[in-house]
Design a protein that fits this description.
about 80% helix, 9 helices, about 190 residues, mainly alpha
């Protein structure tokens, strides 16, 4: 049987997806999810613990969705991993979750004491996921970091401009540059 605390996580995630993290206050959150701020503190001990548990649940959901993506991909014609990841990230079902994670990263820059632990844990999962998308013989952490940085920059650009077409073309172009460079190395 699901506990009241567990039952609160899903509506809290929904609230955060709609309102973001920057101005999170327990009273409006509690009212929106049908409880009181006092009961939120009772169930989660503090705003920071609430945030940690909710973000962990959200990141678990994203990792499961990514795993399903990889399973579906393994039964089809292989697509370039970064292109595949981009198309997954900008899909309507996933975009709000990733947008919230990027907001968390920005907040971690401004207030590392509160948010850095969540970002560090997410960054480790993210890097593991990027590496897992490449064949074992091509798992280069430096290259995975570069791919992640290009992805991050273009996702932030997408969040700021809303221009999916241009940012998708940019990802496609980056992948083509990498493929051309690898062909050139193989020919040399």
């Amino acid at each position: 049987m699901q506990s009241r605390k567990d039952a609160l996580i899903e509506p809290i995630v929904g609230y955060l997806l709609e309102h973001g993290l920057a101005d999170l206050s327990l009273r409006p959150l509690a009212a929106a999810v049908g409880t009181s701020a006092r009961l939120l503190v009772y169930h989660f001990e503090s705003k920071e613990r609430l945030l940690g548990e909710v973000l962990e649940a959200m990141q678990t959901r994203l990792r499961q969705s990514m795993g399903e993506l990889l399973e579906r991909q393994s039964t089809r014609r292989p697509e370039q991993p970064l292109k595949l990841l981009w198309r997954w990230a900008i899909a309507d079902a996933n975009y709000p979750y990733l947008k919230l994670i990027y907001e968390l990263q920005i907040l971690a820059v401004q207030n590392p004491g509160t948010y850095a632990q969540y970002v560090q844990r997410n960054a480790a999962h993210w890097m593991d996921f990027i590496l897992s998308m490449f064949p074992a013989s091509r798992r280069d952490p430096a290259f995975a970091t570069l791919c992640g940085a290009v992805f991050d920059g273009l996702f932030i650009e997408l969040m700021c401009t809303g221009d999916r077409k241009r940012t998708t073309r940019a990802i496609d172009r980056f992948v083509q540059i990498v493929l051309d460079a690898r062909r050139h190395q193989a020919d040399a």
